[in-house]
Amino acid sequence: MSRARKTTKTPARIWKYGLPFGPIRDDRELVNDQIYRSRLFHNDLIALAIETRQAYREARSRIVPGYAEAESIVANLLEQKAELDAEIKATNMEARKKGAATPEQKRRKKKVAEAIRAARNAFAPLKAVEQEVTEARKRAKSGGDLGDISDAARQLMAASDAINADRAKKTAELRVKHGECSWGTRGRVEAAVRQSSGGKTDPVFRRWDGSGNVAVQILSSSKRLYTEGLLACEDTRLRLELTEFKRGRQRAILWLRVGSEGRQSTPVWAKFECVYHRPLPPGAEIKAAWAQRRRIGPGRWRWEACLQLESEEFEPPARIPSHACSVNLGWRGRPGGRIRVAYVVGTDGHSEEYLLPTGVVERLDHAEGNGARGEEARSLKSLRDKKFNSIRDELVQWLGDQDGVPEWLRKETTHLARWRSPARLVVLRRKWMDQRFDGDAEMFDKIDHWKRREWHLHRWQSGESESARGHRKDQYRVFARRLAERYSDIVFQEFDLSVPQRKRAPGEDEDEQSAKQRLNRTRAALSELRGALLLAASNTGARVTEVKPVTGVSVSSSCHVCGHKCEFDRRSKLVHRCERCGAEWDQDENHCRNLLAFRTAEAAE
User: Fold this and answer.
1) What does the pLDDT look like over 406-426, one tens digit per residue?
2) What are 427-482's pLDDT values in tens digits?
């Protein structure tokens, strides 16, 4: 169960059921065709979104003097930065180590970064017109007038309205063009494109890898559908037919309407065998339903059925305020290869550290090679890389010694020595198989043998990784639910999880401890744990309080007993004794107690 995007004030949830075999055999071609057509529709909408954004940029450059010039300066500086990063990367590759950038390269990089910062600061005043338009639209939406805005803002607003009207017209034309894609699926695609088009950067096209979904939209204006009607199997849009028990679980057939045929609009159904592992809540209204397919490896797919439900019963119960707890999220390494992902201190006197299960860490390391150097050498990813590098180098040597190699093969393998993706060699083998030539038997057989081995190892790695991630997600959900049921108020520090995940710049050195912390951060997946805490709190009625950092106050190093700011190496030293009062505390526990104190102070104010 997860939260759904709300379109009404009624609480919404998404119920998920596994589809172990996907669509039944007779409907597989129909479902695959619908998923493929939805991807074509998606990419056409993306192209239209990019065209619309470009038209807006041109209008903005026309209306706001100096905007185009300032934008060009920033773009040129960013291009210089990209070229310098590529140069530093080439230096690192030549030296076969990280941090091999020369002092001159580091100086140039610092100079370019300062120039970019200065150009963006000078660029900021030019964006005031856009801010003026945004504020005017907010006033108009709330029922007021546009107010006293500049002529440039009025011109930009008029140009934007014209561009949006043209986009709406072209979107309607695309709906007609892709009419064979079901109406519900098109609606989901349009919603996804609108969401991806709202950022600062242009949306991107999606390559076809088989992933996608088929959907049906349940319109409340025509006929409402409730869970009882779904199980009655009389609705012409969506049905769930309970069948038999297999291996102790209830099975069902999900009927999803994906079209109509004939003058009588006879429904065209796509049917899926479903594992009905838990009953639907009675009286809940079904707003939408879809079956989604996600690729998790070569020849491996994960099918799920999703039902968006709305019901007043989803409203979390009113809780009587009781005890509160503070949670410190992190990825601190502990003895035995374990990782402390959270530390909890409650006002009821309870405190605990939550460690990521060792089995999860070991399986992630076995699949992805995120462990120590010795463990990484034994990982499936490392084994795949070694076999790929070996066959690639052998092919480079063979091409250099072989005469009579076709021109197409020479052209395809121009930069073969720099290839790092096994997928490129798989594509080359496919082309080679259709264009065999004399003298290629031995080399082609070696590549064919590598490809079969690569397929097996890739499936093994993807399955191991998917299983470990699923285990980690389940553990986080159980921990979050236990915490939300015990405490009525959960407190943690407000921070941007993307900040510590930003990649190091080329040429920047990294010590062993930093590298280990970076690997632990990947294993921990704190955004997943944070999401589990928020979801558990919303389902149980617990309140989540995010304490904003106080300037000049370090929550982890300020002693919770006397308030003294202690100076010590927080990365390598977990337990510290305060220099002023002599209190000894765990750094993460100290963090939690300080957060509880800040929460109490804010509540008093």
Assistant:
1) 999 999 999 999 899 999 999
2) 999 999 999 999 999 999 999 999 999 999 999 999 999 999 999 999 999 999 99
Q: How does DSSP classify residue 237?
A: S
> Measured between alpha carbons, how far is residue 252 from residues 26, 249, 398 in Å?
17, 10, 56
Residues 397, 557: Cα–Cα separation, whole Å: 58
Query: Is residue 222 exposed (0-12), middle (13-18) or buried (19+ Cβ within 10 Å)?
Result: exposed
Q: Decide: 380 and 400 in contact? Cβ < 8 Å.
A: no
Rounded to a whole number of angstroms, the distance between the first and last alpha carbons of the chain is 38
Confidence at residue 106, expressed as pLDDT on a 0 to 100 scale: 86
Whether residue 282 contacts residue 227, with contact meaning beta carbons closer than 8 Å, is answered with yes
Q: State the pLDDT at residue 268.
A: 94
Global pTM?
0.80
Using CA atoms, how far apart are residues 38 and 179, in angstroms rounded to an integer? 10
**109 and 84 Cβ atoms separated by less than 8 Å:** yes
Q: What is the DSSP string of 159-228?
A: HHHHHHHHHHHHHHHHHHHTTTS-HHHHHHHHHHHHHHTTSSSPP-----SS-EEEEEE--TTT---BHH
- The partner residues of 241 in beta bridges, in order of sequence, read 253
d(CA 552, CA 565): 10
For residues 45 and 359, what is the distance between their CA atoms, to the nearest angstrom?
Answer: 43
pLDDT of residue 374: 45
What is the spatial distance between Cα 298 and Cα 461, in angstroms, rounded to a whole number? 10
Residue in the block written with tokens 């617990």: 542
Tokens 């338009």, residue located: 133
Q: Using an 8 Å Cβ cutoff, are 309 and 13 in contact?
A: yes
Residue extents of the structural domains in the chain: 2-36+208-314, 42-180, 324-358+483-604, 377-464
Q: Residue 424: which residues within 8 A CB-CB, separation 6 or more?
A: none
Three-state helix/strand/coil letters over 468-498: HHHHHHHHHHHHHHHHHHHCCEEEEECCCCC
Contact 116, 140 (CB under 8 A): no
Q: 596: closest CA among 340, 323, 321?
A: 323
Nearest to 60 by CA among 118, 132, 120: 132
**How far is residue 29's CA from residue 45's CA, in Å, rounded to a whole number?**
24
pLDDT the model gives residue 146: 72
Burial degree of 512 (CB within 10 A; 0-12, 13-18, 19+): exposed
What pLDDT, on the 0 to 100 scale, is given for residue 1?
Answer: 47
Residue 211's closest CA among 306, 291, 270?
291
Q: Measure the CA–CA gap between 566 and 557, rounded to whole angstroms.
A: 5
Tens digits of residue pLDDT in 346-375: 999 999 999 998 889 999 989 987 544 444
One-letter amino acid at 305 equals A
- Nearest alpha-carbon partner for 405 in 382, 379, 436: 436
Q: What is the 3-state secondary structure (H, E, C) of 552-582?
A: CCCCCCECCCCCCECCCCCCCCCEEECCCCC
Which of 401, 426, 403, 402 has the alpha carbon at shortest distance from 412? 426
Structure confidence at residue 518 (pLDDT): 78
Helix, strand, or coil here: 326?
strand
Distance (Å, whole) CA 277 – CA 529 = 24
Which segments of the chain have a pLDDT < 70?
A: 1-8, 96-99, 220-222, 370-377, 496-514, 550-553, 601-605
Q: Residue 79: in which H helix or E strand, if any?
A: helix 67-95
